[in-house]
Specification:
The chain has 190 residues and is of the alpha+beta class. It contains four helices and six strands; from the N terminus they run αααββαββββ.
């Protein structure tokens, strides 16, 4: 009876489910498709990132070019401002030069040598300083009349050799930094 009480244990064999070869192929194909989709998504993301980097680089280059233009323009504006201020200051000194020239002519006629020498010294120093800053006298006396440099205040008969030439200078003309600051007022031979 002992055998009756013994439980019969029947070992069940492990059932291995073998997948059909078509299931493996289908899973492999699905996995490959998922990988292909993932790779395609990554390629698209890389392309988007490259576009973004290219756009950012172009924006950066454009911004740097604009900044360089701004810096150059600012420097030019500062130089123009300084030149303009210098031109205004020098323009204000032109009547002083005119007065010195008149005084020299009067003193030459009167014969006061000490006053003439002092006035010439002042005129020479002032003119030397202004020339060092870029002021130039416009040549006029004996030169052909040039409307770009001279302003005719009168015409007088002067014969063939004086025709179209400056006979007398009424007021000296000046250039500053290559530009006419004041035209020479002249009498032209006719």
């Amino acid at each position: 009876m002992a055998k009756k009480n013994e439980k019969k244990t029947v070992e069940k064999p492990e059932v291995k489910q073998e997948t059909a070869p078509e299931n493996d192929a289908q899973q492999t194909q699905e996995t490959a498709e998922k990988q292909d989709n993932a790779i395609e998504d990554l390629k698209q993301e890389v392309a988007r990132q490259k576009e973004q980097v290219a756009k950012e680089k172009a924006d950066y280059v454009r911004l740097m070019a604009e900044f360089e233009t701004f810096r150059r323009r600012s420097a030019e504006d500062r130089l123009n401002l300084v030149a303009s201020a210098a031109a205004d200051t020098i323009k204000g000194l032109l009547p002083v030069l005119d007065d010195c020239e008149r005084a020299i002519h009067v003193l030459q006629e009167t014969g006061d040598e000490a006053a003439l020498e002092g006035t010439q010294l002042i005129y020479t120093k002032l003119m030397g300083y202004l020339k060092s800053k870029g002021l130039e006298v416009i040549p006029a006396l004996g030169e052909p009349f040039d409307t770009d440099l001279h302003e005719a205040v009168a015409q007088i008969p002067a014969g063939e050799e004086g025709k179209g030439k400056v006979i007398e200078v009424a007021q000296t003309g000046y250039r500053f930094a290559g530009k006419v600051m004041r035209y020479a007022k002249v009498v032209v031979g006719n």
